[in-house]
Amino acid sequence: MFTGIVEELGEVVQLVRREGAWRLGVGAQRVLEGTEVGSSLAVNGVCLTVVERAEARLAFDVGPETLKATALADLVAGALVNLERPVRLGAPLGGHLVLGHVDGIGRVARATPERDTVRLRIEVTEPGLERYLIHKGSVAVDGVSLTVAGLEAGAFEVMVIPHTLKVTTLGRRVAGDRVNLEMDVIGKYLFRFLQLGEAADAPAVAQFPARGDA
């Protein structure tokens, strides 16, 4: 479980395209603390397992399904990635609940500077995925917790503040870039609950005998 608060920008230092899983090596510093082989780490919002740990480097195996379902397939040597360690119980929840399970891929339609912020318009490439979004609700874009500032069929907008532009990859996004999208998990569960009509299947309330009938 993550929060969408990026801890560090890592750099892709190794990218071995094997048949099947790719080996992804990322240079890092801060997130090395407490991270061992077998630990989970969010890389651009994708939960990956550490398979190697060196002095200033972590390595991950990225399987075919992940490459197909996320924008990690677009990475090249030298690219920067957002890194976040799992949240610890009792730690502040600075963003929102993020699982690291990408729901779909978005495409940056435009990045418009507005004073010291940037308005990102992101097209949702998977039909119907925007059903889980609400105005002023939460969404994770490449693992960054953001607030939905605008919403319409097939697209949404977020405002990115200067700090986030500086410490995440979002400050480098341009039109045409693909990004990983994870919708708010609470909204997804609620939508599924209503879709299945669980409320209608709930057990009937027990009827107590009227006074004097016992």
Structural key phrases:
6-stranded antiparallel β-barrel; 6-stranded antiparallel barrel; 11% helix; 214 residues; globular; 2 domains; 39% strand; Elongation Factor Tu (Ef-tu), domain 3; mainly beta
Description:
With 214 residues, this protein is mainly beta. It is globular and about 45 Å long. The strands form 2 sheets. The chain has a 6-stranded antiparallel β-barrel with strand order 1-2-5-4-3-6. A 6-stranded antiparallel barrel has the order 7-8-11-10-9-12. The protein folds into 2 domains: 8-84, Elongation Factor Tu (Ef-tu), domain 3; 104-197, Beta Barrel (Elongation Factor Tu (Ef-tu), domain 3), CATH 2.40.30. 31% of the residues are buried. It is built from 3 helices and 12 strands; from the N terminus they run E-E-E-E-E-H-E-E-E-E-E-E-H-E-H.
Summarize the structure.
With 214 residues, the chain is mainly beta. It has helices at residues 64-69, 162-167, 185-196; strands spanning 8-16, 22-27, 40-43, 46-54, 57-62, 80-84, 104-114, 117-124, 138-141, 144-152, 155-160, 178-183.
Strand order of the largest sheet: 1-2-5-4-3-6
The level of helicity is 10-25%
CATH class of the largest domain: Mainly Beta
* CATH level-two architecture of the largest domain: Beta Barrel
The total count of helices amounts to 3
Total discrete domains: 2
Low-confidence stretches: none
